[in-house]
Amino acid sequence: MPSGPTKADLEQIIQDAADLLNDAYRPEATREELAEAVGNALSLLDPDEDDEDDEDEEDDAEEDEVEAA
């Protein structure tokens, strides 16, 4: 039996992401607010992606430290 989210779980995640984006989509929204909403929606849709981004940022910081030395 496969483990993981059910169809209902996936539908709810998609709906939550759509709600975040719809709430942010307004004329007075700033770029920062829109970018945050997109980031939050992407995090909902692919929660494992955040871990990879953090690792990439850590690798970049380590490379910068080595180049500076």
Structure description:
The protein is mainly α and 69 residues long. 80% of the residues lie in helices and 0% in strands. The chain is built from 3 helices and no strands. The protein has helices at residues 7-24, 31-45, 47-68. The radius of gyration is 17 Å and the shape is flat. The protein starts with 6 loop residues before the first helix and ends with a helix. The relative contact order is 0.09.
What topology does this entry show?
Elements (H helix, E strand, L loop, with lengths): L6 H18 L6 H15 L1 H22 L1
Helix pairs in contact: 1-2, 2-3
Overview in brief:
The protein is built from three helices and no strands. The protein is mainly alpha-helical and 69 residues long.
Radius of gyration: 17 Å
Q: Profile the largest sheet.
A: none
Distance between the termini: 53 Å
State the share of residues found in helices, binned by percent.
over 70%
Average pLDDT for all residues = 84
Strand segment count: 0
Alpha plus pi helix count: 3
- The topology string of helices and strands comes to HHH
Instruction: Give the percentage of residues in beta strands.
Output: under 5%
Class by SSE composition = mainly alpha
The quaternary organization reads as: single chain
Report the uncertain regions: none
Shape: flat
Key words describing this protein structure:
single chain; 69 residues; mainly alpha; 3 helices; 80% helix
